[in-house]
Amino acid sequence: MKTIVHKADSRGQVNHGWLQANHSFSFANYFDKDKMQFGALRVLNDDVIAPKMGFGTHAHDNMEIITIPLSGILKHRDNMHQDWQQVLPGEVQVMSAGTGVEHSEINGSVDEHLSLFQIWVIPNKQNVEPRYGQKRFQKEDRKNKLQILVSSIDENHEGSLKINQDATISRIDLDNGKSFEYQFKNKNHGVYVMTIFGNITIENETLELRDAMGISDSENFVIHANDNSELLFIEVPLH
């Protein structure tokens, strides 16, 4: 098994006043040659956005963009939908940018900060027709068991949102003292694990709030929860 540990305080930290961003990988003005990506995982941003603020209209192409709100209200609009789409905690949003899409993202609250993860996955198909998807996932369905949020459009998995890559994004909420064995779907994949909240141990390495570990060259690994913990898994091809 091969592992790489990224502690929370080693991320690129940017404070724009209205936006507090933490970049797990090189992004915008943050550059670290040793943190360009993890296989097909290109971006994992942990953002906090002030009330009524956000990102104006901007363009993307040939990228799979996944947004997971943790608290607050996200409002999204793109040139596939003229109306604002509201995305709440418990929901996940995917956008396959493909040949090109323009969109805006704002904090839809006048008094509450918005906290979210934004994930970019490099697609395995270029210049596809842009797609949008959004789905609510029940918290009780990930209590001490894996809940798959996103999977490949080529994979017949019921209930998950779809992207153009052989990747799987999932979550689990582990009770204090519980253990869970994660099984890779492909031996050529890697898994990037982030501790959303809590305290866990993987391979004698303790991970706390927003610490992360990339794991590869294995078929499985075991997580032990040292506290009530919420985890995010991003499994991607490495090459």
UniProtKB/TrEMBL annotation:
GO terms for molecular function: metal ion binding. It comes from Bizionia arctica. The lineage of its organism: Bacteria, Pseudomonadati, Bacteroidota, Flavobacteriia, Flavobacteriales. Keywords: Iron, Metal-binding. InterPro entries: Pirin, Pirin_N_dom, Quercetinase_C, RmlC-like_jellyroll, RmlC_Cupin_sf. Belongs to the pirin family. This is Pirin family protein. Residues 11-121 form the Pirin N-terminal domain. Its cofactor is Fe cation. It comes from the Bacteria. Binds 1 Fe cation per subunit. Residues 150-236 form the Quercetin 2,3-dioxygenase C-terminal cupin domain. Fe cation binds at H58, H60, H103, E105.
